[in-house]
Write a structure and sequence with these properties.
By secondary structure, the chain is mostly helical. The chain is 50% helix and 0% strand.
């Protein structure tokens, strides 16, 4: 009662041109750099917003990424 059915299917992977990915990669890279600025440098003389609201919001992330803040 053994049977072996071999069925072979051709799988074709989609080809995505680099020209379509590049603008999105640049956009995401800029967003990540902006997030890194807020986590790493939004404090003191380089702050864009007055007060400590942004600093306190990203405080634990600063320590997790190794940025000193106090």
């Amino acid at each position: 009662m053994s049977y072996s059915a071999t069925r072979q299917t051709d799988i074709s992977l989609p080809v995505i041109p680099v020209g379509e990915i590049l603008p999105w990669a640049i956009f995401v890279g800029l967003l990540l750099m902006l997030a890194l600025y807020f986590v790493g440098a939004e404090q003191g003389a380089t702050s864009l917003f007055s007060g400590m609201y942004v600093h306190e919001f990203v405080h634990d992330g600063r320590h997790l990424l190794g940025f000193p803040c106090h």
